[in-house]
Amino acid sequence: MGQGYEKLQRCCESCRNGIPFAPKLALILGSGLGDYAENFPIEGEIPYQEIEGFPVSTVPGHRGRFVFAHIGQVPVVMMQGRVHYYEGYPMDDVVLPIRLMRKMGAEVLFLTNAAGGVNYEFQAGDFMMITDQISSFVPSPLIGPNSEELGPRFPDMSQIYDRDLQEVLRDTAKNLGITLREGTYIQLTGPNFETPHEVKMCRILGADAVGMSTACEAVAANHMGMKICGISCISNLACGMTEQPLSHQEVQEAADRVAPLFRQLVTESIQAMFR
Predict the structure, then answer these.
(1) What confidence tens digit (pLDDT) does each residue in 204-222 have?
(2) Residue 15: CB partners within 8 Å, gap ≥ 6?
(3) Does the annotation count 22 as an active-site position?
(4) pLDDT of 2 strictly over 70
């Protein structure tokens, strides 16, 4: 049993009494969805600071707590404030929240984020369903001694994003009249935005959107046997595609503009997944 698994066990024990129910779905609230949890009766919350050894998000707009609520009839744990590799945490800590939510009982992971559009057909404000990913530019969360309690040493990655869940997202978006693009997400380390030639590299590799989170979380969740789906809010076109310099404020403002549609798409999709 590795040190990472022992730390996970301590976190489980530390927050056990604050968990009001066993969630079926874990939802990570990306930029633009920070206040999503406030739309539902909150049945429990666990601030990260109260969990022994747990990393705390330092990014503006990212609150640091787990929130428990029912979305329709679905018991959900929401991660309000994710942890990023660029904040200086080891990758084991970055994906610790994913592993903890799996231990709480979640079988499905719904990832959301704000991302830069790499595909020239995308526009700011678009939604992209993630169909595949490139995580080769950040350390794998599976490096080091493997804990068989979490998953196999060499997990298959041929279908990280579940096809059935993708179909649910497509159908829900269609029923709501929301255009849902599809594509491959690439994670770079950040915190600096990409250079024009780095964006060009991402495009050559086949990426449609670029960001600083998500892919490593999906690797850890897949390792633990979770079903995964994800949606990126295209908050801006990546560096070099327009004359506009990039800023975190621009990303946050763009995500906030389309937040009502994003909330609707996420809410209806979650309920449709468990019908």
Answers:
(1) 999 999 999 999 999 999 9
(2) 46, 50, 51, 66, 100
(3) no
(4) no
